[in-house]
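User: My advisor, Dr. K., asked me to get a structural model of this assembly before our group meeting. I'm new to this, so sorry if the format is off. These are the inputs:
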Amino acid sequence: MADIQIAKKGEASQTFPEGITAGEAVKALCSNKERKQTLAVRVGEDLLDLSASLMADAEFELITADSSEGLDILRHSSSHIMAQAILEIFGADGIKVAIGPSTADGFYYDFDRQEPFSPEDFEAIEKKVKEIAAAALPFEREVMPRSKAIEYFTERGEVYKVELLNEIEDDTVSLYRQGDFVDLCRGPHLPHSGWVRAFKMIRLAGAYWRGDEKNPMLQRMYGTAFFDPKALKKYLHQLEEAKKRDHRKLGKELELFTINDQVGPGLILWQPKGALARKLIEDYWKEEHYRNSYELLYTPHIAKRDLWATSGHLDFYAEDMFSSMDVDDVSYQLKPMNCPFHIGIYKTKKRSYREFPIRWCELGTVYRYERTGALQGLMRVRGFTQDDAHIFCLPEQLEDEIFNIIDLNLHVLKTFGFTEYNIYLSTRPDKFVGSEENWAKATEALKRALEKKGLDYEVDPGEGVFYGPKIDIKIKDVLGRSWQCSTIQVDFNLPERFQMSYTGEDGKDHQPIMIHRALMGSLERFFGILIEHYAGAFPLWMAPVQAKILNITDAQLDYTESAFKELRQAGVRIEKDTRNEKLNYKIREAQLAKIPYMLIIGDKEVEEQTVTVRLRDGKNLPPMSVSDFAEMIHAESQGSISPQ
RNA sequence: GCUCACGUAGCUCAGGAGGUAGAGCACUUCCUUGGUAAGGAAGAGGUCACCGGUUCAAAUCCGGUCGUGAGCUCCA
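Assistant: The format is fine. Below is the predicted structure of the whole assembly, which you can bring to the meeting.
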């Protein structure tokens, strides 16, 4: 057997016999302390577990429990352990196993079983997993010819594994065994099951085999695992926090919006409080656009179906559109997008290059058919309002326009409290319209704009829409969840389809560059995200009710009434609660309604012509006059929506 | 659309092994006029999502429809 040279990265190598396991090499080359934290090693691009044999010279890095790769390995192994537990509890006879990968938050494993699992089974599964963890069963890797593995799984009736094996191109495959559970798996895995110290079943749901709805529906069991029980506790706490912030729950409690069976699923009814918040958002949006040299448009909700044939929507998106309706024997269609209307306005006259860039924006309500199963609160609806805009410009203006859009975009997001985001640049897909040259130029312009703004971004190769490259911005909310709202897309398709043109400097006709962009995406969805981001406690500038006056007894009714009128006059969004209830009761209600300020009026305040101000967090400000309060509110609201 | 679960008063939920329903909050009225998160009493409110079937009898069992949730799929 030949000798090989192995080294810990950055350190001197030692000679070992070929076939030595990674674990033995780590033991020889690393300190005890390091070894104890090591789950696997990275050699080049590959992650190997400690039981893997090293067959050539290698330099390795340690993958320890405190790394994200380590957590991934833990969860992947936990899915195997969960599968083992489930087979032990329910018997392997009636169950076929499918796949069990790790995910961003944990892992899942898919099972094919006649009888449904139920959440009541979770406790027993968790208990069994604990037993398996306590037994510290080693994960044993076995490499065998593919044909032998096929034979092995065929014998056991594991048809899904056989299907996977038949598609693997390598001659040899690896199997992992812990206890009696054997699974086809690339690995790497934990050294032994004892590493699983914090395990929790999360939920179960149906999932098609390989995500294809023609395939059988399997039962997907979701779980999560952590090295540290405290981290699990924190994660579960976060799930609860997300539940508390659920915009559907808060939307109901705060009377922001409702969805009504009789009206139809996926259609939002904005209640007064929600409608007012929306108005504030829209007002801000419009002012910001006006300041940035956009012009506002309004367009109708329906149009002749032919328009959508010209635009290409019927070819590409017919399935996502509502069915047509006949009006005087002509077919009409609810709009799924605003762009053809804006193009209609563009075409009202002959355009000159001197007019460019043309920047048109609209809060345009569109209707898209979403499958019933996809609908969710405000996040996924059938009728929604896009904060849409279309920019028509010259090729040489593209980069500047993109730059300005990004600038405005990030400013608007910041005003709403989103300062963390990931940016993605999607490039030309396999199927595309327009010339390769134009694609390259446009993509380059997007890139340069991002770089000029000093922004980090990731390239999503081939992920562009067929009509042009795009930039997507995903914001992070206060719980660290990502939401894609903003998108900036270059379009080579519509100008062509609608034969748009302008007269250039040379007196000839040219085709304009068209940019679509949305900052919030859908107002409905964005509002849902805001509700969850702020847990319903909106910042002052967009709070539908900024303050509520609470009188202590009927004796202060007159003063309460005059303070109320004065504040309304002063433009403060004020309400009053003059019911015959105790102060405690009124405070509780205002607090639950997440109103930023409570103004308390008792005999003392009447006498001194002041109000006592209570904040949402329970603290009090010193008594102040009504006009001082109005001024304070205005100053504070203005501060948070400073213009760009 | 698919799988599973769920649908009882405005809201949050209990109950119901088949004999036409209950709590708390909210609402109305009365008492109480009380300084920083629920004062008291009374009253009103539901053909138990809808449609069909089984049954002497269905809110309860069965089937379908609609809606909601979790996920799959989809997301121009």
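One thing worth pointing out at the meeting: The first strand of chain A starts at residue 3 and ends at 8.

User: Perfect, thanks a lot.
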